[in-house]
Amino acid sequence: MSSPRRWACAERWRGAAGTVTAEIAVAVPAVVLVLSLALSGIALGADSVRCHDAARVGARELARGESEGRAVSDARRALPRGSSVTASRSGDQVVVVVSVPPPSALRGIGVGSGPRCSSTARVEEVT
Questions:
Q1: Any residues with CB less than 8 A from the CB of 53 and at least 6 apart, and which?
Q2: How far is 114 from 28, CA to CA, in rounded Å?
Q3: Rounded CA gap, 46 and 38, in Å?
């Protein structure tokens, strides 16, 4: 024998069918979005470190007397695709400027530029 109370409980749950599915359908994309933005922020920080290192390498090579093409090539080797490296000499100073594009997930939300780093060194005299 079944009690009326048991049927009332079953009727209450029958009206809530599918609510868990709807909640998961909203929660999963939100979690994926937050996770991708967090990972893109971490990648942006790593790109910033690589940007500083590349600028330093390029400036050091130019200061030692390497050709501009080789210094730019060596600086570009450690950078992600789409990065730009420029080098210039002014008197006894060399300057290398490196800019890196932001990760694609951050470009999607309007972040227009990534890290931009420069390094300056004094030209070494060879005796």
A1: 78
A2: 28
A3: 13
Number of domains in the chain: 1
**Pair 44, 105: CB distance under 8 Å:** no
Residue 2 is predicted with a pLDDT of 57
The answer to the question of residue 38 being in a domain is yes
Distance CA 117, CA 48 (A): 8
pTM above 0.85, yes or no: no
Phi-psi region of 4 (alpha: psi -120 to 50; beta: other; left: phi over 0): alpha
Mean pLDDT of 42-60: 92
Report yes or no on 34 lying in a domain. Answer: yes
Give the range of the structural domain holding residue 21, as residue numbers without chain letter.
Answer: 5-122
Residue with tokens 């009206």: 15
- Does residue 127 lie in a domain region? no
